[in-house]
């Protein structure tokens, strides 16, 4: 245990509420891991996978009603409703503690309460934050052990009296009507009850590293963002680091682990992975922006991952990985839709039922063996492209920030903002067609500024203001770009092949940072001049390329309606600069004379 009095008092209090049979303070050791795995296997919470083929790997199934983040049950509990903003569900702290308290009350009877000390970010780094999670789920302990730095070194930090985030979690009875994910930014506290799904239950991830961290970052003058971080090693050996924000399940993991396409590999490019989901960024004494990945693992979407789309991820999940809601094959290995073949001729699906490829439900729809939001939890260190700088307490310098979304028709393949303020606007108008990572209507367009809509722990108007302020604090801010890998033609076929070919766009982006690539000014920003993207070895005809880079003023004028509706929700709180950029864009679009 720790000697930190505040931790001990809080645990005592939570023990009184949840009434576990016993408490176990996690030391993060291998012995502890082995013991928890064996217990989880004997209780049916984990299945041991084929240890010859998948050493150190386990399989887990969530409850059928508990397969994705539940945004409608996720709340920011601040004294003033306006401080949470229209982007968040709100509850008063009193109501939050009372409502969740009733569900937590006695929820751990007959179970052990695990207390796990964890650090987001390298232990002891000025970027890092410490949390203590109390949970009654062994799956959560074992997953947090992968996703965070957990155990003795963190206990030693806590012993120094370091402040920490209080993270209380119980699966309770996994009843969706008794499920709440509550954040109390003013108390540095998270209470999550009724869910065992990673995004709701691994409290170091979305809850701490984005919702609470974004609030702390605003107050402390740094940034907590839903961004991958990758290093692009250029042919001269210099590595530029990029941070990129895409909504959930839009390919951040693939991009972070990209392998250069053959056409560009001969130039000598190489990618170094730092993180695939979250970036914590600070302005350094040199006036530039530096970033760390606070996580220690990947909680990635499995379907679609294969040796072609993401060979590095395939290698990453070959050992020490917990798979959730994928297909369990008879030989105790795993498979998912869009995974490497051959397709197994039978297996057990994510619901625990016998499954065969081609099975149809009563409506004649194909029954997925793996849930579309099935996941792997794997250590960062497994990734063949992992950067040696992940443990550096100082992080890496960021040359470019990229925003992106899944838009079939509107946004060009890539465009560059005119300056930081315009770049903040470009992030603020981000939108995407929904995917399986959120419960909701698939395919519907939703506005998702900086991919932070579900993760910004305070009023998003103030968040935009914070971005503007951060730009002023930098002498050399990163350039800001927007990409769209998902543009389609008249037959709804993707115009751009995506995946490793995206490096061609990254090359253009980095060249722009050094004033080396040509661009054309359009009303929305700079787009690549024809032939300024290296297409060696990739056959895309001129018509498709033109469509990919097209900026249609009418479509954009139409888009402005949804943007203004979104902005209006924030009333007077929206920074003037954002409306200035809106008006300027409208003027530029109208000036094109359409
Ligand atoms: C994730 C998400 O799991 O964004 O990273 O939903
Ligand atoms: Mn994410």
Automatic annotation (TrEMBL):
<feature type="binding site">
    <location>
        <position position="406"/>
    </location>
    <ligand>
        <name>GTP</name>
    </ligand>
</feature>
<dbReference type="GO" id="GO:0042594">
    <property type="term" value="P:response to starvation"/>
</dbReference>
<dbReference type="GO" id="GO:0004613">
    <property type="term" value="F:phosphoenolpyruvate carboxykinase (GTP) activity"/>
</dbReference>
<dbReference type="GO" id="GO:0030145">
    <property type="term" value="F:manganese ion binding"/>
</dbReference>
<feature type="binding site">
    <location>
        <position position="277"/>
    </location>
    <ligand>
        <name>Mn(2+)</name>
    </ligand>
</feature>
<dbReference type="InterPro" id="IPR018091">
    <property type="entry name" value="PEP_carboxykin_GTP_CS"/>
</dbReference>
<feature type="domain" description="Phosphoenolpyruvate carboxykinase C-terminal P-loop">
    <location>
        <begin position="222"/>
        <end position="586"/>
    </location>
</feature>
<keyword id="KW-0418">Kinase</keyword>
<feature type="binding site">
    <location>
        <position position="375"/>
    </location>
    <ligand>
        <name>GTP</name>
    </ligand>
</feature>
<dbReference type="GO" id="GO:0005829">
    <property type="term" value="C:cytosol"/>
</dbReference>
<feature type="binding site">
    <location>
        <begin position="197"/>
        <end position="199"/>
    </location>
    <ligand>
        <name>substrate</name>
    </ligand>
</feature>
<comment type="similarity">
    <text>Belongs to the phosphoenolpyruvate carboxykinase [GTP] family.</text>
</comment>
<dbReference type="Pfam" id="PF00821">
    <property type="entry name" value="PEPCK_GTP"/>
</dbReference>
<comment type="subunit">
    <text>Monomer.</text>
</comment>
<keyword id="KW-0312">Gluconeogenesis</keyword>
<keyword id="KW-0456">Lyase</keyword>
<keyword id="KW-0210">Decarboxylase</keyword>
<protein>
    <recommendedName>
        <fullName>Phosphoenolpyruvate carboxykinase [GTP]</fullName>
        <ecNumber>4.1.1.32</ecNumber>
    </recommendedName>
</protein>
<feature type="binding site">
    <location>
        <begin position="249"/>
        <end position="254"/>
    </location>
    <ligand>
        <name>GTP</name>
    </ligand>
</feature>
<keyword id="KW-0670">Pyruvate</keyword>
<feature type="binding site">
    <location>
        <position position="206"/>
    </location>
    <ligand>
        <name>Mn(2+)</name>
    </ligand>
</feature>
<feature type="binding site">
    <location>
        <position position="69"/>
    </location>
    <ligand>
        <name>substrate</name>
    </ligand>
</feature>
<dbReference type="GO" id="GO:0046327">
    <property type="term" value="P:glycerol biosynthetic process from pyruvate"/>
</dbReference>
<dbReference type="GO" id="GO:0006107">
    <property type="term" value="P:oxaloacetate metabolic process"/>
</dbReference>
<keyword id="KW-0547">Nucleotide-binding</keyword>
<comment type="function">
    <text>Catalyzes the conversion of oxaloacetate (OAA) to phosphoenolpyruvate (PEP), the rate-limiting step in the metabolic pathway that produces glucose from lactate and other precursors derived from the citric acid cycle.</text>
</comment>
<comment type="pathway">
    <text>Carbohydrate biosynthesis; gluconeogenesis.</text>
</comment>
<keyword id="KW-0963">Cytoplasm</keyword>
<keyword id="KW-0808">Transferase</keyword>
<dbReference type="GO" id="GO:0005525">
    <property type="term" value="F:GTP binding"/>
</dbReference>
<dbReference type="InterPro" id="IPR035078">
    <property type="entry name" value="PEP_carboxykinase_GTP_N"/>
</dbReference>
<feature type="active site">
    <location>
        <position position="250"/>
    </location>
</feature>
<keyword id="KW-0479">Metal-binding</keyword>
<dbReference type="InterPro" id="IPR035077">
    <property type="entry name" value="PEP_carboxykinase_GTP_C"/>
</dbReference>
<dbReference type="GO" id="GO:0016301">
    <property type="term" value="F:kinase activity"/>
</dbReference>
<keyword id="KW-0464">Manganese</keyword>
<dbReference type="InterPro" id="IPR008210">
    <property type="entry name" value="PEP_carboxykinase_N"/>
</dbReference>
<feature type="binding site">
    <location>
        <begin position="499"/>
        <end position="502"/>
    </location>
    <ligand>
        <name>GTP</name>
    </ligand>
</feature>
<dbReference type="GO" id="GO:0006094">
    <property type="term" value="P:gluconeogenesis"/>
</dbReference>
<feature type="binding site">
    <location>
        <position position="248"/>
    </location>
    <ligand>
        <name>substrate</name>
    </ligand>
</feature>
<feature type="domain" description="Phosphoenolpyruvate carboxykinase GTP-utilising N-terminal">
    <location>
        <begin position="9"/>
        <end position="218"/>
    </location>
</feature>
<dbReference type="GO" id="GO:0019543">
    <property type="term" value="P:propionate catabolic process"/>
</dbReference>
């Amino acid at each position: 245990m720790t000697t930190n009095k505040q931790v001990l008092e809080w645990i005592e209090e939570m023990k009184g509420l949840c009434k576990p049979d016993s408490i176990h303070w996690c030391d993060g050791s291998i012995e502890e891991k082995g013991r928890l795995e064996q217990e989880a296997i004997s209780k049916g919470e984990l299945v041991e996978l084929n240890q010859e083929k998948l050493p150190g790997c386990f399989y887990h199934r969530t409850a059928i009603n508990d397969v994705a983040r539940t945004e409608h049950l996720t709340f920011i509990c601040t004294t003033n409703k306006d401080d949470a903003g229209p982007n968040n569900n709100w509850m008063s702290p009193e109501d939050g503690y009372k409502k969740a308290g009733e569900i937590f009350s006695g929820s751990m009877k007959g179970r052990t309460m695990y207390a796990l000390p964890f650090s987001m970010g390298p232990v002891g780094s000025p970027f890092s934050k410490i949390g203590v999670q109390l949970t009654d789920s062994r799956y959560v302990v074992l997953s947090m052990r992968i996703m965070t730095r957990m155990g003795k070194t963190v206990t030693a930090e806590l012993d120094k009296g370091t402040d920490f985030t209080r993270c209380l979690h119980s699966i309770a009875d996994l009843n969706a009507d008794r499920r709440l994910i509550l954040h109390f930014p003013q108390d540095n506290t998270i209470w999550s009850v009724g869910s065992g799904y990673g995004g709701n239950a691994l409290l170091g991830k979305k809850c701490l590293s984005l919702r609470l961290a974004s609030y702390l970052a605003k107050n402390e003058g740094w940034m907590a963002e839903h961004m991958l971080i990758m290093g692009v090693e250029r042919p001269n050996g210099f590595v530029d680091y990029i941070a990129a924000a895409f909504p959930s399940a839009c390919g951040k993991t693939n991009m972070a682990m990209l392998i250069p396409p053959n056409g560009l590999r001969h130039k000598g490019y190489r990618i170094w992975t730092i993180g695939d989901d979250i970036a914590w960024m600070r302005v350094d004494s040199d006036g530039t922006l530096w970033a760390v990945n606070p996580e220690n693992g990947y909680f990635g979407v499995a379907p679609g991952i294969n040796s072609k789309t993401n060979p590095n991820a395939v290698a990453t999940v070959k050992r020490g990985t917990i798979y959730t809601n994928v297909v369990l094959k008879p030989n105790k290995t795993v498979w998912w839709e869009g995974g490497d073949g051959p397709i197994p001729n039978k297996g057990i699906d994510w619901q625990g039922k016998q499954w065969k490829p081609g099975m149809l439900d009563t409506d004649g729809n194909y029954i997925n063996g793996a849930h579309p939001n099935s996941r792997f939890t794997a250590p960062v260190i497994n990734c063949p492209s992992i950067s040696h700088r992940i443990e550096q307490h100082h992080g890496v310098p960021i040359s470019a920030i990229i925003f992106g979304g899944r838009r079939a028709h509107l946004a060009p393949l890539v465009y560059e903002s005119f300056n930081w303020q315009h770049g903040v606007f470009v992030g603020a108008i981000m939108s995407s067609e929904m995917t399986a990572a959120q419960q909701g209507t698939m395919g519907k367009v939703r506005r998702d500024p900086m991919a932070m809509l579900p993760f910004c722990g305070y009023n998003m108007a103030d968040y935009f203001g914070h971005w503007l302020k951060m730009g002023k604090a930098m002498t050399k801010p990163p350039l800001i770009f927007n990409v769209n890998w998902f543009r389609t033609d008249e037959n709804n076929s993707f115009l751009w092949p995506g995946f490793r070919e995206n490096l061609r766009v990254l090359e253009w982006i980095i060249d722009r940072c050094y004033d080396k690539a040509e661009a054309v000014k359009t009303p929305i920003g700079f787009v690549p001049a024809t032939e300024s993207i290296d297409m060696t070895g990739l056959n895309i005809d001129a018509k498709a390329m033109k469509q990919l880079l097209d900026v249609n003023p009418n479509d954009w004028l139409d888009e402005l309606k949804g943007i203004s509706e979104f902005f209006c929700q924030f009333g007077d709180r929206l920074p003037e600069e954002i409306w200035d950029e809106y008006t300027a864009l409208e003027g530029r679009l109208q000036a094109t004379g359409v």
